[in-house]
Amino acid sequence: MKALRVFLLLLLTFLAPVASRAEADGKIQVLLLGDSTTEAKFPKLLAPKEPQFEDIIRLLLAAEGDLPPANVINSGVSGETIRRLIDSGRYEKQASKLPGLDYIFVRYGLNDHAKIPDFEVNFPKDFHELLAKLHSDHPHAVLIPMTVIPFADEATSTKINDLIRKVAEEEKLTLFDIYPRYAEELKSGPNMLNYRRYALEKIPEKLREFAKPYITEGKDPAVVVLDNRLDVHFGKLPGWYHDRHPNLAGYHVIADETAKFLAPLMRAKVSAAK
Questions:
Q1: What is the distance between the alpha carbons of residues 58 and 27, in angstroms, rounded to a whole number?
Q2: Roughly what angle, to the nearest 10 degrees, separates helices 53-63 and 248-273?
Q3: How does pLDDT run across 235-253, given as a tens digit for each residue?
Q4: DSSP for 116-133?
């Protein structure tokens, strides 16, 4: 019996999930760096049992049938700029030491445009600095700069994406342009890919009890829903559709395009290794 217990203990130890080094064994390692449009905070909060952004990418890659399994790590943070990522020490703690990374997607620009001075000079400079760090820490990883999704107005999006495109060209990296696919999907309905987040204080008093199941508590309580279920009641309130963060449908679009971009790269890598 003692020998059996020892065997079972060793077996459980072998099968138990461990740190990311073990997860890398036999798996393609994909890192997602970005802001709130990468993090997907509210979909995770409100629909935790559904596949999330990183899960959808992994499942779509697995569905290809001829690719090795992938481990997709979502390291997006709300409000993040490239400068804050580097200066806060978060890069060193969560990105520089991850083992065995194969592909790193980098999607910043929205917060950078809103927060950093002299954006057109400092944003490309910061982007180059981050890419240099990633290349130094992960010399075997494929670095993939991404454009931002349609979040700001078209002119602002174009300004941000043109700078990202220029950085990619200067670094001789292949740009992953997510903007056109997302914009095309929005033609089916301008608000179909974003969730609704609206300050509770702006909801008419007579309807606040009705809105109670959808309130997220905190310093500034808000009504948050991932779909259009409350549009019939609140759709005419000024700013109801203002928040452009992706809902689950939006993340399915981004994930689908990401998998389509990544699958051929993975397939070519597997073929070259044979």
A1: 11
A2: 40
A3: 999 999 999 999 999 999 9
A4: SSSHHHHHHHHHHHHHHH
